[in-house]
Design brief:
The protein is mainly α. The protein is built from 17 helices and ten strands. The two termini are about 20 Å apart.
């Protein structure tokens, strides 16, 4: 495809995935509702072709915000759609009095992208009245979503939030969570009956395993027992991880909210306190000296998770890394490029846990390339930023608007398409922004 043909297909994908009352589904068949961080990246792409939809996407997402500030990872705008599991009834958010029931939602969150998305829209249309009005209206709601993370997910007030369900990280089945997941002893007789829907649409060898899904359901039930925000989550969960990506994007969005607040004269004192503590804690606790990369911290094990993976590089987009650390991360990406990998693999290709086909255990994700491209540019690594950008565009051109892609160049001649959902919104959106900016 030519550049113009790629852009046209991307526009058509976003148009096909738009739904009433004003949101995008990630992919029409596989993900039929509104997903939290998907909507953020989709708004960034839509800003180039339909600014009104970009704003509306964010407004609609926040109709699902809970009284405690949490923005759930799924907003179920339709209660008639039955092709997805777990649906709204399985989450049963009535266990929390502050959860909205119109629309229904899930009971967990996702990475805090909303602050930097709002800043992106504001920077794109700095003098547009509708953009300014929307950003001003959403600003306190986004701040409150951060407050939820600092209150309910950082009980020891370190400045680093924890996740207790892998779905929250956006990297569902990453090998990062394997040890924590293995600590869960599953009595299958106590699990509620359920039927997966994803493997009816996508290939099973591209998706999380059945055992992993049992553990996802176990963690969902743990959250439900505790109203999804109770202290019992911190007390009981075998999975308590301070994740690189989730904390880096929280820090990135803090910085965006501070700049937005300063522009409009809002009080940003609380944000500045969070930001100072979080940035310091991220540097002190998540840098792994031996591996020379940022890694998550397993609270239950009391140790870092010593693995190289994609979340580390989001520290560049958030401006957390020192210049020395940024160069180390850039050099590592250069080494992968020199060895014949497309960038950026979602997990260490030298690890025995690497799988270039299965979800977050190796494949490339376009929105992650968008973040890493942004971060490399911030630190002046323009050459590597272009490699990351060009690899994403090449993969989409060659293999279609899929959810994720194989990172091994030596297997590419045998492939005809990408993996996961087709006609994927954030793939289209990130492509548009990578080409247009």
């Amino acid at each position: 495809m030519t550049k113009q043909e790629l852009l046209q297909t991307a526009r058509e994908t976003l148009e096909a995935n738009w739904r009433a009352p004003g949101f995008s589904v990630p992919s029409g068949r596989l993900y039929p509702f509104q997903w939290n961080w998907d909507s953020g990246f989709t708004s960034i792409g839509n800003a180039h072709i339909n600014p009104q939809r970009a704003l509306r996407e964010m407004e609609t997402l926040f109709t699902g915000q809970w009284a405690n500030g949490m923005v759930p990872h799924i907003i179920f705008h339709s209660e008639k759609e039955t092709t997805y599991f777990p649906n709204f009834d399985f989450w049963d958010t009535t266990v929390n009095a502050g959860a909205p029931q119109r629309p229904k939602t899930s009971g967990i969150t996702q990475p805090a992208v909303h602050g930097f998305v709002l800043e992106h829209l504001l920077n794109t249309f700095p003098d547009d009245a509708a953009t300014i009005a929307t950003v001003k209206a959403l600003f306190p709601r986004v701040v409150n979503s951060h407050r939820f993370l600092y209150i309910y997910r950082d009980p020891e007030r370190e400045g680093l939030m924890f996740m207790y369900h892998p779905w929250e990280t956006g990297r569902d089945n990453s090998p990062l969570w394997d040890a924590s997941m293995d600590r869960i002893v599953i009595d299958k007789g106590t699990l509620p009956a359920y039927t997966r829907q994803d493997t009816k649409i996508a290939a099973a060898d591209e998706r999380p395993t059945a055992d992993q899904y049992d553990r996802y359901v176990h963690q969902l039930e743990l959250g439900k027992r505790n109203g999804y925000d109770g202290p019992g989550i911190f007390a009981e969960s075998e999975i308590l991880i301070q994740d690189t990506l989730m904390n880096a994007l929280l820090i990135k969005s803090n910085a965006s909210l501070i700049r937005i607040g300063q522009r409009f004269g809002f009080d940003v004192g609380e944000l500045e306190e969070w930001q100072q503590q979080s940035t310091r804690a991220f540097q002190q606790k998540l840098w792994h000296e031996e591996l020379q990369t940022f890694v998550p911290y397993d609270v239950r094990a009391g140790a870092q998770i010593a693995e190289r993976e994609i979340g580390s590089f989001t520290a560049l987009s958030a401006g957390i890394a020192s210049d020395k650390q940024a160069k180390i991360l850039n050099d590592y990406l250069q080494s992968l490029h020199d060895r014949g990998f497309y960038l950026c693999p979602s997990f260490d290709p030298d690890s025995p846990h690497f799988d270039s086909r299965r979800y977050w255990r190796g494949p490339i994700w376009p929105h992650m390339n968008w973040l890493i491209h942004d971060g490399l540019k911030n630190y002046g690594f323009g050459k590597m930023a272009e490699v990351v950008r060009n690899d994403a565009i090449h993969l989409i051109r060659e293999f279609g608007f899929y959810e994720y892609f194989d990172c091994q160049k030596n297997t590419a001649p045998d492939l005809t398409q990408g993996y996961g959902g087709d006609q994927f919104s954030w793939t289209a959106a990130c492509l548009i922004d990578l080409i247009e900016t």
